[in-house]
Amino acid sequence: MSNKYNADKPIYLQIIDRISREIVRGVIKPGDKLPSVREMAIQSGVNPNTIQRTYSELERMEVVETKRGQGTFVTENLGMVVELKKSMQASVVENFVKSMREIGVVETEIINSVEEFLSKGEGKHD
After folding, report:
1. CA–CA distance, 71 with 68 (Å, rounded to integer)
2. pTM of the predicted structure, to 2 decimals
């Protein structure tokens, strides 16, 4: 599971993004135990301190909870998972719209582009 990381964004944030995506997609389910800090560090090819920071931030976000002596678990609060997905969705849309505006595309053109893309069945993800 070793990844290549983007130099423009801190590694721990990139790992948070990856774990969050896996949670909202259902790859990692509510109540699932995450790998130990050491295991995740080896899988991710990073320092254990980076994973500790990742898990701490996910806990602060209430996406995971750490049970002393047992490990770190994905929240069983389904409302939190729904909120996480909504937040991620809003962020993707915001970045997309900003990028389109940066190249001079106006609102109606953005909407038409998305509709055309979807009508072609491109990017289907089931």
Report:
1. 7
2. 0.82
